[in-house]
Amino acid sequence: MNQKRVKEPLFRMVKRDAIAPKKAWGIRGVAFLLSLVAGGLLILTLGHNPVSVYKSMVVGAWGTSTVRYETIKIAIPLLITAIGISFAFKMKFWNIGAEGQILVGAVAAGAFGLFTAHIFPKLPLVILMMAAGMMAGGLYGLLPAVCKARWGTNETLFTLMLNYIALAFVKYLMNGPWKAEGSSFPKIGMLVQGARLTKVFGVHWGWILALVLVVVSFIYFNKTKQGYEISIVGESNETARYAGISVGRVFTRTMFLSGALCGLVGMLQFAGADYTITEGTAGGVGFTAITVAWLAKMNPYGMLVVAVFIAMLERGANTIQTNFKIPASAADLLIGIILFFMLGCEFFVNFKLISKGKEEQHA
Amino acid sequence: MLSTLNGLFIAAVLAGTPLLLGALGEILTEKSGNTNLGVEGMMFMGAITGLAGSYYYEQASGSPNGVISALIALAVSFAAGVLGALIYSFLTISLRANQNVTGLTLTIFGTGFGNFFGEYIGQKAGGYVAVGDSTKNAFSSIHIPLLSDIPVLGPLLFQYNWMVYFAIAIAIAMTWFFNRSRVGLNLRSVGEDPATADAAGIDVRKYKYAATLIGGGICGIGGMYMSMVTTSGVWVHGCVSGYGWLAVALVIFATWSPARGMLVALVFGGLTIMRMYVSITGLPAQIYDMLPYVATILVLVITSMRQSKEHAQPKSCGTNYFREER
Fold it and tell me: pTM for this structure?
């Protein structure tokens, strides 16, 4: 095999020392456009005009105030979950259990919302639901973190399996103890009108909370000691240990926060959007939020932009389903394609290719 | 009692086979030092393409032949798995993207791919996609003269569909490959320590690509099993859901050994369908459904508590190899 190496490869790659931010964003912009082109080619092979399909997606997401509210309603859980996930991902703890954390958060909030609404007035009830949702989500996230800290248990699979367990539990509640009275098919009752979250400019106030969380988490990541510890643990567990940081403690503390934010999403979905709990309460948000967090490079402000964009795709996908009979799963496909391109383009941000025969130029 | 046990065993084999195929594909992938979390996605891709391959073949030919239809499904689902793995490989091996995130993205993409084309082809077919009888027969249990007729043992061992034997054959072949063949040993060295393998003259990139692509293809075949056998040739929205992830977990329980993979696949196949065979009074069905997942977590925790060097993940898993940064 070594003899063959004499042939010079077509390209050589050289690591860039530094790249102007403008150029880096230029590369990312090109990759993003290319991903839309790739998605467009797919639409073309299905026999539709990509431009009119894309246009219909945008109009379907922003065209009227009704769909605008819908789009924002999709963006809220995405954004908060993405922030929650980024807590874990920043320390390279692969929390893919947001779905489950959202569901248990919704269930805990439901325990108060559905059964104590006649006891408490609205404000204390909402606070109770929030606290319960966050506590449940946090504890659900804490479990894999404790095992990881103590025995190095694989957190990816652990958190994922917890999703299925939470889902089965919700189905159990739907069929059994929480089944709505007088309903012939399994579903949980509705939250009473008086306990539902107040709307501010047409959408429940979760959007204000989401914006606040963007700022707070940015400060937490960049300006606090705990945020700094998270990034050190993410860089290298050994470095962190050498610096006297208790890695296990950072794992558990951060995962509690991560799960608590996802649990908060469950509460918001229950009390602000759906008013009930179903198998679809999490509805893939936990996975899509991973994409949001990663595309935004774990920057909360970036996540705001990406979450709104992805919400547009998802809302728009419903429109193209009715207008063009393209299945709404197209949104997942398109999100996957975009992320593939964005993952790939980072290589061209960090390295440059020198084609064969060109003069050697060390960067 | 005995007949219940026999029934449970047979059902466990049938339910465990897609898990085994997914796990085998992932074992091959991880032996090269790539952790591909996209198993679920690749299985979805294999599930829809395999079904579509057979469906379109039946539409095209007037009198479809079951064997040809099955071979088409096999080839197409393998190709779809390879395609998914190719995206993953190109991003992680050539473009050095993060393995975990790329794998997760592949799962999102593949799930969308499967459901999207499942619905799309269904729409065109006027409601839903389903294969005809000739293909269905090709995926039903086979009858081997003499062997299948042995009382008790016959039904237990010699009356499955051909994919069960196919999966077992792959597991045995892989065991030999990893332990006895030069290429297999080279591959293991790539997964354990790519820098050393590189110094020894092994083409690390080529090995990583080959193992990941073929592994992805095997996962694709596992997905095809879900759409052709488990749902008997009808596209069910989200049909793979969860099985790909269980397969990833099985890799750990099998301690990266294909032979042990057969055993754990049988156990977990059994756990997923036990509810239909062994009823526990007072236990609601939905709580019973948690069983395979709870068992997975318990085994995960227990295996992590007593780590052994011999039965560990290939050491370089999760990190990309850059020759320039040695």
Answer: 0.90
